[in-house]
Design goal:
alpha/beta, Rossmann fold, 6-stranded parallel beta sheet
Length: about 450
Amino acid sequence: MPPRSVDGSAPDLPLVQFIPADPVESAGVSARPPLSIVYLSASAAVGGAERALLDLLASLRSAEPEWRLAVVAPEEGPLLAGVRALGVDADVLAFPAALAGLGDAGASAAGGRGGALSLLLGMLRAGPGAARYVSRLRGLLAELRPDVVHTNGFKMHLLGARAAPAGARLVWHLHDFVSTRRAMAGLLRRSAGRVDGVIAVSRSVAEDAAAIVGPDVPLRTVYNAVDLHRFRQIGPVMDLDAAAGLPPAPAGTIRVGLVATMGRWKGHGVFLRAIAALPGELPVRAYVVGGGIYRTAGSEVSAEDLRAQAEALGIADRVGFAGFADDAASAIRALDVVVHASTQPEPFGLVIAEAMACGHAVVASAAGGAGEIVTPGHDALAVQPGDVEGMSEAIRQLALDPVLRDRLGRAGRETAVRRFDRARLAAEVAPLYRSLTSSR
């Protein structure tokens, strides 16, 4: 948790150490030639890391219109549609099947030597295909001639370290803790000699990564951002009842929702048990908003398992499963309370910032990066990860107190405007690119 000021609020600490701007650049005139940046994404779906990438591209496209930006992803999908809508080039370089399913999420769940062995066996199966993919990726990057290769996702961190041209700088964008993924941490440590800079989405992630990359690699903390025009109080509202196949909720119902990917550590079970612990007479209807988006084996829970859990808890008639929302902002606006229930420390917690920007009350599992971006009692209610009783009590308080919901929502919007406007991303990331390329 960051230090608190005397009134209990989180002070505005610097997010990065800025490199002083050239006088000519400060006047709005570029003193140096435009850069070419190629972004490697491990997924074409749009989860938190991919939304963060789109926000970064939008900010850079506005601030540095002369820069050549391109994204490489393993397949067509929502990410590349969003990339092209920004006027950024997009290329598809398909993963072979064994490489597409390779990841350490399932391996990490197995834990210890069993987890490492699971990942090792997956690597052996993917080996020949991975080698061919690296060769093809190296050829594509040679054609694109980037000044910087910016990788998104553990898989692309490893592949980028092998495929980036010798003359390009390699930047890892870390959206996850490394130390908790023991098998992957070993692989990243062996590849760290090739990386030139690291961007971490929170101070917690930065501190965790420092042991992997060592003291000589520039490591910047750059918080994720939110499109404040899209995520605001007024706009389209998703019909969650229709999406979940439920009859319309009675007037006066308080809608409480978990908006998340189906990652195993996103706390769906905690959320369902917290709902089950609420007084039966409380007019609350709960929603699970999200669907499976990743192909990595073992990384996600299934909606069928969650429905079975709701049935076993006796709350099947009080919970709607709305599936993946193409427009997360419209889903958030449909809720009275947004719940973040991750059972592990959160690297950042993008849905928290998005819900704040929409002016909605938030209950957050405030550990890791999530603990850095909220001020408990001021712009969110905070609970410890996995605390079913605490989460249930926080939901109960908000369901019964519309004044509290309104106060938290107003303060949350102010926090989002002050700290998470995506316009700031270019000002924080471009100096890192410049510093790395100027030292060649």
